[in-house]
């Protein structure tokens, strides 16, 4: 096999890898979230997605609006998928990662909540998610009792 044959094989292999990578990164936005095969995990995810947001009907709509506003301003953005992790029985962490292009590097924002299924509560656990939560559901400020 000559040099031309080796180059052809290498070229076809590289093209195949590019096609596979393109397929992996071009999945539709509404694909299945990363949720364990657990009915309680799915319930926790639904509680977060449908939870009322500060300026939108739901948290899911608030994140979608945030991403659309970035795109409208011409900011490159990548919206991740919902992820659910079990912290302990009946308590789950639900999160969504959004990456946006900053002036120098990519900025990753984690929107995360802790769900307690026993009383169906959704508590914010990341700084980015605080901006979407209704004011009456935010945790108290440190030393709030000392503020006059």
Task: Please summarize what this structure is.
With 148 residues, this protein is of the alpha+beta class. The chain is 35% helix and 24% strand.
Feature tags:
148 residues, single chain, 5 strands, 5-stranded antiparallel sheet, alpha+beta, Heat Shock Protein 90
Shape: globular
Query: Between the first and last Cα atoms, what is the distance in angstroms?
Result: 83 Å
Number of domain units: 1
How much is the radius of gyration in Å? 21 Å
Low-confidence stretches: 16-32
CATH top level assignment: Alpha Beta
CATH topology: Heat Shock Protein 90
User: Tell me about the biggest sheet?
Assistant: 5 strands, antiparallel
Could you give the count of β-strands? 5
Structural class: alpha+beta
> β content, as a range?
15-25%
Number of helices: 4
Average of pLDDT: 80
Order of helices and strands: HHHEEEEEH
Helix content: 25-40%
């Amino acid at each position: 096999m000559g040099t031309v044959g080796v180059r052809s094989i290498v070229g076809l292999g590289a093209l195949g890898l590019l096609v596979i990578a393109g397929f992996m990164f071009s999945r539709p936005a509404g694909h299945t979230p990363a949720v364990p095969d657990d009915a309680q995990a799915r319930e926790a995810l639904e509680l977060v997605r449908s939870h009322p947001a500060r300026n939108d009907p739901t948290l899911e709509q608030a994140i979608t609006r945030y991403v659309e506003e970035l795109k409208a301003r011409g900011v490159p953005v990548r919206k991740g998928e919902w992820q659910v992790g079990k912290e302990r029985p009946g308590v789950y962490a639900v999160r969504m990662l959004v990456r946006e292009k900053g002036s120098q590097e990519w900025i990753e924002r984690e929107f995360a909540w802790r769900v307690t299924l026993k009383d169906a509560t959704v508590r914010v656990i990341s700084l980015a998610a605080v901006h979407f939560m209704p004011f009456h559901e935010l945790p108290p400020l440190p030393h709030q009792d000392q503020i006059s």
